[in-house]
Amino acid sequence: MAKDFKTLIRMRKWALDDKRRELGEMQGVLNNLLTEKDALEKAVIEEQRVAAENPELAGFAYGSFASAVIAERAALVKRISDQEAKIDAFRDEVADAFKAVKTAEIAERNRVEAERVEEDRKEQAELDEIGARSATRDDGLI
What is the distance between the alpha carbons of residues 117 and 136, in angstroms, rounded to a whole number? Predict the structure, then answer.
């Protein structure tokens, strides 16, 4: 029985580690999207600077660039929002896995404590029996 709890705890810890690893990967995807959005914003600022320096040359190209940036920004914001929602939902799964580990650990701790109490009770019963026998011998009853 003791081995069963230890195996259960180990399996639940592995599951928790896998979930944490997956959450880390999801967070990495989100970080990449945020980095991509920052790069896009920097590109817009640079393009605006170039357009301000050469208004007659940039006038034709900047309009289509701005339209593409608006579409790309909207797509990135949507992907970021979706990824954040996915991460929030997955955090609940990680919390559930953590709860499962703690539940198994508490059950094991309670089992060990119950075993210890039972051993102490048996030992006390033996000592009481020895004491009772010793007392009857001292009184001359045996």
Answer: 28
Asked if the model's pLDDT at residue 54 lies above 60, the reply is yes
Rounded to two decimals, what is the model's pTM?
0.70
The DSSP annotation for the chain comes to -HHHHHHHHHHHHHHHHHHHHHHHHHHHHHHHHHHHHHHHHHHHHHHHHHHHHSHHHHHHHHHHHHHHHHHHHHHHHHHHHHHHHHHHHHHHHHHHHHHHHHHHHHHHHHHHHHHHHHHHHHHHHHHHHHHHHHHHHHTT--
**What domains does the chain contain, in order, with CATH numbers?**
1-139 (1.10.287)
